[in-house]
Amino acid sequence: MGNPVGLGPYSNVISRLAAGVPSAPTAVTLRTIGELTMRVAWSPPDDTGGGAAAAHPLMGYEVTLVQLGETEAVVLTRSEAPGTRQSEFTGLVRGTAYQVQVRAQNDALDDSGYGPAAVAAGQCADGVSRAGVCDAAGLVASGAASAPTGLELRVAGSGVIGVSFGVPGDTGDGTSTFPVLGYELEWEGRALGSGTVSAGGTVELGSGELEWQTPGSLQSGMRVSVRVRARNVAGDGAWSLQLAKAAVIYPDAPIFVTAGSGSIETCPVSTEGGTRRVQLVREGGGRAGCSGSIPSLYLALYWTVPENTGSGSADASLLTALTVEISGTASFDAVTSVVLPIIANDASQTAHLGAEQSVLLDLGRTYFLRGWVTNAVGRSGLSQVVSRQAAGLSSAPLGAELRTMGELALRAVWEPPLDLGAGDGVSYPLLGYEVSFLELDTTTGTWTSVETRDLGAQDHAADFSGLQKGVMYQVRGVYPSFPLESEP
Questions:
Q1: How far is 479 from 391, CA to CA, in rounded Å?
Q2: Which pLDDT value is given to residue 263?
Q3: Nearest to 233 by CA among 94, 99, 35
Q4: What are phi and psi for residue 203, nearest 5 degrees?
Q5: Which partner for 478 in 55, 134, 409, 434 could form a disulfide, CB atoms 3.0-4.6 Å apart?
């Protein structure tokens, strides 16, 4: 510098690189990192102000969060240190789209040293861009998905459990249309009667995979428990309720105990101890108190539920049907098949069987029966064969008489019936006779029982003594049936 006197001394020497504002930051991305939380990340600008070949120190970054919609609104602006490469935003509004702009600052005089802003590109967690969700414009704020809906377990095969479920009601943005990235399914299997886990694991399913099956063939009765959850850009969602179901295999064959036959009209279902009775019948009839028509000629099959109906126990509720094959020959050359439903008693978990189906039965003919049971997996093997001669009630005894046998004594006599139950002259075992002795009440005109006797099949007479003089007596045979009256 100089004045009227002259030039003064030189100042100190300073230097300065001619610099402009920095270029925009690079690789700017925006991702969801948790419940209604986003993170923007970036890399430094290619030109920090001194040109691509000359580095120039930055003073920091300005990060601006913008809410998108019909009109854009700046939510907040913050400054980050020059060495910072990311910034996070919390407490965002579910289902709202956001944009983040990042610009660098140096000491250039223009625009206070701020360079142009870079808009962060929204990224879904799987790296796929989805319009309106995670794209170049920004990112929609999301939370964890709710639990998947409609979880169901079913028997899908022998030793196989099938699993199905639906998309969560809230997949992240308050709707069910926000992208699900996939599902995590946990399952475990415990052997029948044991608390020890002997099978299981974690399975990763794709966003469209809403069904799954257990691998291989599980043990009979193994109890499989399953739960599932969805995953979106915010992370893992809520677990579903855990459901469990027992693995089912093919059932064992039913146990055919014996077969009976008859022709009396009776209700179609009876239970005797651990056996169930099924009537296979021919003709129609009826009886008060019974539902439906009850034929007069039938075969009665007595059988028991197998020890393993598919789940390792004799649980009759797992059975869906009993199929019986009936043939007039032991080789089953000609077969009539009858499918009978099974009704399970939930309390006792045993089946009370009741079914009627018309089949052609010939009186006196011997029939052979075999069959199988079916569950959700399929049918069992064949039962053992039982046989029975088709027969009904016998006819009345022949030559029935009531004779006087001394003072105040009577004797009823008879001969075996011509039809023992299998037709006239056809051999069939007769169990015996029931003989009732009655007296007449002359006041009311009604017969009153005095004594009832069960007699063997070989008995053809019954004596009654110690009677009262002047009283009318009657003898009735209930099986076979014959009424005889005495004179007073």
A1: 15
A2: 53
A3: 35
A4: -120, 130
A5: 434
Which of 141-155, 253-267, 402-416 is the most confident on average? Answer: 141-155
Tell me, what's the pLDDT at 345?
54
Q: What is the pLDDT of residue 82?
A: 95
CB count within 10 Å of CB 275 equals 17
Measured between alpha carbons, how far is 288 from 278 in angstroms, rounded to an integer? 20
CB atoms within 10 A of CB 303: 24
pLDDT digits (tens, 9 = 90+) for 299-310: 777 888 888 999
DSSP 95: T
Report how far residue 372's alpha carbon sits from residue 126's, in angstroms, rounded to the nearest whole number.
53
- How would you list the strands of the sheet with 461-464, edge to edge? 398-404, 410-415, 461-464
**Planar angle of CA 177, 91, 143, nearest 5 degrees:** 25
DSSP letter at 317 equals G
pLDDT at 18: 57
Q: Please list the residues that pair with 488 across neighbouring strands.
A: none
User: Lowest-pLDDT range, 36-45, 133-142, 285-294, 441-450?
Assistant: 285-294
pLDDT digits (tens, 9 = 90+) for 220-246: 889 999 999 999 988 899 999 999 999
Q: How far is CA 451 from CA 326, 473, 482, in A?
A: 43, 11, 16
**Distance, CA of 380 to CA of 318 (rounded, Å):** 12
Quickly list DSSP for 15-39: -----------EEEEEEEEETTEEE
CA 129 to CA 429: how far, in whole Å? 87
Name the DSSP class of 111. Answer: G
Q: Tokens representing 47?
A: 């030109």
Contact present, 378 and 371 (Cβ < 8 Å): no
Sequence-ordered list of residues with C-beta below 8 angstroms from that of 347, at least 6 positions apart, any chain? none
Q: Please state, in angstroms and rounded to a whole number, the distance separating the CA atoms of residues 32 and 126.
A: 11
Structural domains of the chain in order of their starting residue, each with its CATH number: 26-140 (2.60.40.10), 149-246 (2.60.40.10), 255-389 (2.60.40), 398-485 (2.60.40.10)
What's the alpha-carbon Rg for the chain, to the nearest Å? 47
271, two tokens: 């239970």
Q: Give one word for 420, left, alpha or beta, with left for phi > 0 and alpha for psi -120 to 50.
A: alpha
Residue 471 or residue 381, greater confidence:
381
**Cα→Cα distances 175→142, 178, 188, 291, Å:** 10, 6, 31, 53
Taking residues 431-442, report their average pLDDT. Answer: 87
The burial of 444, by beta-carbon neighbours within 10 Å (0-12 exposed, 13-18 middle, 19 or more buried), is given as exposed
Tell me whether strands 366-375 and 319-327 are parallel, antiparallel or unpaired. Answer: antiparallel
